[in-house]
Amino acid sequence: MVPNILRRGVWVAIALFLAMTTESMALRPEETIASAARKVVKLYGAGGFRGLEAYQSGVLISQEGHVLTVMSTVLDSDQIDCVLDDGTRYVATLVGVDPRRELAVLSLQATDTPFFDSHNIERSPPGTRIFALSNLFGVAVGDERVSAQHGVIATVIPLAARRGAYEAPYRGDVYLLDCTTNNPGSPGGALVDYRGRLIGMLGKELRSSTSGIWISYAIPIDELLPAYRDILDGKSVEPETSSLVVRIDPTVLGVVLLPDLLDKTPPFVESILPDSPAARADVRADDLVVAVGLDSVGSRISMSRALGRVPAGDPIQITVVRNGELIDLDLGPLPDTKKAARQ
Q1: Of 217, 204, 236, which is closest to residue 105 (Cα–Cα)?
Q2: What is the distance, to the nearest Å, from the Cα of residue 183 to the centroid of all Cα atoms in its chain?
Q3: From the centroid of its chain, how far is CA 34?
Q4: Are the C-beta atoms of residues 326 and 50 closer than 8 Å to each other?
Q5: Is it true that domain 30-232 has CATH number 1.20.1410.10?
């Protein structure tokens, strides 16, 4: 009887020791943050206006130097600068995008960088303690560490969100977070659990379609990995290079752009046709068009292609920069025109 009691006591003591050891390891957030932050990068590109910042975040996902981030106007630049945690700077190359998930994959000429292990990642349940790591507000420069926020996963639900009048294209599950990650510079950042495992990527600045409030969310990494692999396999269709993209001349809306004199001539408005949708929407000469709906545009060609992806009769909203401010303008339904032509 006594030996059995002793054996049970020994097993209980071992179990308590293991539980205390595991808990003590989990209570070292500074180590978790430091390890994960080394795999988060700071990205710089196009932008520089309020609401259209020229910076965002990304996560290193492979030993080949691949970076996951969000598809945005920041990447619509001739040069995308990527700064690692130690201050090392690289010029990133855009490998491809997944428009449905608004995911972009970049490549660095580096093979010795730390990266997140994305194998055997399971969906995390509500209540999971998390850290959100990103270059929010662009406060980290050079070798300065990205910012860390802590919280929990509030729930896991399908995303129903919008930016302006346009619904976000992604409709899959997201982690809703109880910390405010809806900040400039945060998109593309890493969501890790208390063990430092990558479980998601911070999403864009969006509002709930039902309540209209800003939401803080992350797309689970298991939703992104299939798209990442497809992009590496060459299955990504990049809108700027696809030979099947339909172009629509912006003049059907009354917008006359500056002549296409250079490669990637920005879509500056030269004039407005009278009694046109653009005139009624108060589009003005010298406006710079930066988005058609949720599609960022950085050139005349990208604007005409963005219009070509809108079905005839659907409402058109453009975002312009005017006197340093972003302005959303509703142009009404897209006319059913025969000016669309395949490239």
Answers
A1: 236
A2: 12
A3: 23
A4: yes
A5: no
Alpha-carbon distance of 80 to 104, in angstroms, equals: 12
Domain boundaries, the chain: 30-232, 246-342
DSSP states of 273-304: -TTSHHHHTT--TT-EEEEETTEE--SHHHHH
Q: How many residues does the chain have?
A: 343
246-342: CATH, from 2.30.42.10, 3.30.470.10, 3.30.300.130, 2.30.110.10: 2.30.42.10
pLDDT by residue for the chain (343 residues), tens digit each? 445 555 565 555 565 555 444 444 455 889 999 999 999 999 998 877 666 788 999 999 999 999 999 988 788 777 899 999 999 999 999 998 887 888 999 999 988 899 999 887 889 999 999 999 999 999 999 999 999 999 999 999 988 876 655 567 788 899 999 999 999 999 999 999 999 999 999 999 888 877 878 899 999 999 999 999 988 887 654 444 444 456 889 999 999 998 876 656 788 999 999 999 999 999 999 999 988 887 778 788 888 888 887 888 889 999 888 887 889 899 999 887 654 444 4
What angle (nearest 5°) sits at the alpha carbon of residue 80, between those of residues 97 and 149? Answer: 80
Q: What is the pTM assigned to this prediction?
A: 0.70
* Sign of the dihedral through C-alpha 231, 234, 235, 239: positive
Residue with tokens 């593309």: 188
What is residue 127's DSSP assignment? T
